[in-house]
Design goal:
alpha/beta, Rossmann fold, 3 domains, 6-stranded mixed beta sheet, 5-stranded parallel beta sheet, globular, ATP hydrolysis activity, hydrolase, EC 3.6.3.-
Length: 500
């Protein structure tokens, strides 16, 4: 049994006020299949880089492992895949071929230039290289980005059958659920390690959050009571002080009433001293209670600008075929009625995105059959490729006819920090740019929402946000997504596209 130990690990980027990790201590058993989860920006990829020794830090990281990171850097993608794998893994040919067979990849990909492989093939090849060295500990960072549902299932089977451990970062909950037996969650104010898969972690977290929320509410009531008591005591002390001042100034004729002026002054001073001590003690108790409050993870509800169309059927396809050099898929018949959410499913390259492009009038190939979109329909999109989103957020909102405040509000609720609002879109991270594209779509008033892989670059909290929003708002949608749980929860019907 081998371990990876973090002892008082402290790390932060110079541009951030708060450290990502602050005196963190943790022990990981390397035979665990460990899922690493958390909101974007919390430090998942940073932790992998720290384990690799690629970032300077305070504290210690102790292990005796050779760590391999996925996705590996491929400097020259024009080289033969076999040569690239040899450089990356230094493994024997038969071992490489064995791993490819387990991943259901044809061995002839080894003798093709790497840049001619599909995104899914490249992912599988790099995963195979990761597991060739049987003594290495794999660090797997977002392996599902280029995998369709079939390829995801193949990789799930591959990882489930591995007897050795690994650390996996993925926002696909069903994927994580299927392959891990431990979860390490980077939460807002702590690291939480739990045994079991993501579903078990989620159940435990809900119970923990409910308990902490009730505890927080009780603490807040006690703090309010103490602060109210402190205020009342302070007001009473202040009134006694005013009495003393008034007596000194002769506003109260103590001699006529047979009272000793000096005794009254001394009594008032003692009362003030006692009351101030009480106020300080109560305030101290209130401050101590505040330190017990848990910094919980809150995910705000998003807003979606759903418009109602007077058309019952918004979209109809009859014998629809799309072509470039040849037909992308067999003829399709389908329709989308108001309130329905159609999931378009199929393997990569089957033409799913082309169907969405044809709906919004951006398909550049040949269209056969019929595709009818209701007249006057307002359509809002989330595109796979959104590199043309540029400029400041204010310029972007104006260009797209968005209510600026609503747009920023959705961005903030999606987890984009206010400090990013002054950054030009082209200078943002890919996750932030994806949230700009999504916030644009949510803010745009529309009868039909056309979304192409909306979950890419989003964390599991965003996934749940979108699911809850869609189930509540009930928009009319046609979408492509490879996340099985998302499809299961929000699709009202499914269109399976057969390649060729």
């Amino acid at each position: 049994m081998s371990t990876i130990e973090l002892k008082k690990l402290t790390f932060g980027y110079g541009s951030q006020e708060k450290n990502i990790f602050d005196k963190t201590t943790l022990t990981i058993q390397t035979e665990w299949k460990l899922g690493l989860i958390g909101r974007n920006g919390r430090g998942k990829t940073t932790l992998l880089k720290l384990l690799e020794g690629k970032l300077p830090h305070q504290g210690t990281i102790c292990h005796q492992q050779t760590l391999y990171y996925f996705p590996q850097t491929v400097p020259d993608k024009r080289r033969m895949t076999f040569e690239i794998l040899q450089d990356l893994s230094d493994g024997e040919t038969w071992k490489v071929e064995r791993e490819l067979r387990l991943l259901e990849v044809a061995e002839n990909v080894l003798w093709r230039p790497f840049d001619t492989l599909s995104g899914g093939e490249q992912t599988k090849v790099l995963l195979a290289g990761l597991f060739v060295d049987e003594k290495a500990y794999p660090l797997i960072d977002e392996p599902t980005n280029h995998l369709d549902m079939l390829a995801r299932q193949q990789v799930i089977t591959y990882l489930k059958n591995k007897t050795r451990g690994f650390m996996l970062v993925s926002h696909d909950r069903a994927f994580v659920d299927a392959v891990v037996n431990h979860i390490l969650s980077i939460e807002k104010s702590q690291l939480v390690l739990s045994k079991g898969n993501y579903s078990i972690y989620e159940e435990q977290k809900e119970r923990r959050d409910k308990f902490e929320q009730e505890k927080n509410q009780k603490l807040k009531r006690e703090i309010n009571r103490l602060e109210q008591s402190a205020t009342e005591k302070a007001e009473w002390s202040h009134s006694r002080e005013k009495d003393k001042v008034n007596r000194k100034r002769g506003f109260v004729d103590t001699e006529k009433r047979g009272l000793n002026k000096g005794a009254i002054g001394a009594d008032a001073a003692r009362a003030m001293k006692r009351s101030k001590a009480i106020v300080q003690r109560i305030q101290k108790q209130a401050n101590e209670k505040k330190t017990l409050l848990k910094d919980q993870e809150y995910v705000d509800e998003l807003k979606m600008n759903v418009q109602t169309s007077h058309h019952q059927t918004v979209l109809t396809a009859e014998a629809l075929q799309l072509e470039y050099d040849q037909s992308l898929f067999q003829p399709l018949d389908f329709q989308v009625n108001q309130g329905e959410r159609l999931a378009v499913c199929g393997v990569n390259g089957s033409g799913k995105s082309s169907i969405l492009k044809s709906v919004i009038g951006e398909f550049s190939g040949i269209t056969r059959g019929t595709l009818l979109v209701a007249n006057g329909l307002k359509i809002s999109t989330v595109r796979q490729n959104y590199e043309d989103n540029r400029g400041t957020l204010a310029e972007f909102a104006q260009k797209n006819g968005l209510v600026y405040e609503e747009f920023l509000n959705n961005l903030r609720k999606l987890g984009v920090e206010r400090s990013v609002f002054h950054t030009r879109i082209e200078d943002m991270s890919m996750g932030q740019r994806k949230r700009v594209e999504l916030a644009k779509s949510l803010t745009t008033p529309a009868h039909l929402f056309v979304w192409d892989e909306p979950l890419n670059y989003l964390d599991v909290f965003n996934h749940k946000q979108l699911e809850e929003l869609i189930l509540m708002a009930k928009p009319t949608m046609i979408f492509v997504e490879h996340d099985a749980r998302f499809i299961e929860r929000i699709a009202t019907k499914t269109l399976v596209v057969a390649k060729g």
